[in-house]
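JOB MANIFEST
job_type = single_chain_structure
chain_count = 1
residues = 252
[input]
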Amino acid sequence: MRLDGWDRKYGEILRDFGFSRKGDEDAARLLNSLLPSKEPLHSLQQKIEGRTVFVIGAGPSLPGSIGLLRRFRGVTKIVADGAAKALLEGGIKPDIVVTDLDGNLEALRKASMMGALMVVHSHADNMGILPAALLFRNCIGTTEGKPFGKIRNFGGFTDGDRCVFLARYFGAENIVLFGMDFGKKIGRYSKEGRYDRKIKVAKLARAKSLLEWLASRGGARFYTTSVPLEGFEKIRYEDLEGLVPVGMEARR
């Protein structure tokens, strides 16, 4: 489902974080040149439209969710970057991975080899690592700016909130968040290598506000198993069976 108002939100992100629109455009052009001509968009539609989907972030509450997530075999799992490693360690196959390639590349490559659809985001700060997209079998490129060529814009800022925007864009009926905590504590799967903690926390705060804005616009029913979010219904683990049966086999 197309989202009006994203351009304004993107302009606010550029202004508030001091990011470069031109840098983002240059990165998008680079990614566009790397991607094959075939886009598996129909596969995204099939995995999401009309379904309950789990969006899995790499927040500190994620490890405590792994056992539960393993029980829901047939539910589409849209996974934010570093959370892919946690799921693979727990014996869970991600269906869709949303990444700007700052997570564990070996885990991302393994997820792709297992059949995950890879949604790779381009921005000014990750141009040097964008060629890693060539490691993936089924790859879709995204930008926060104007879409063109093989580059799409489903909305969203960080890997985690981009997962939710993606689910809403392709018409999920129910979107349930796991490991999406938005606090000052950074999950151990959230980032590889060195990073600026202050900026990371600020990005999480912006992601939270974007998700609350998204929920206010409807288009799906929004749930969270972790921290309260405006527009998201808090749902207990034991109530998830009301949305989808345990052990449900994936639809073809």
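[summary]
The helical segments are 6-17, 21-34, 41-48, 66-71, 83-89, 105-113, 159-169, 197-216.
DSSP finds eight helices and nine strands in the chain.
exit_status = 0
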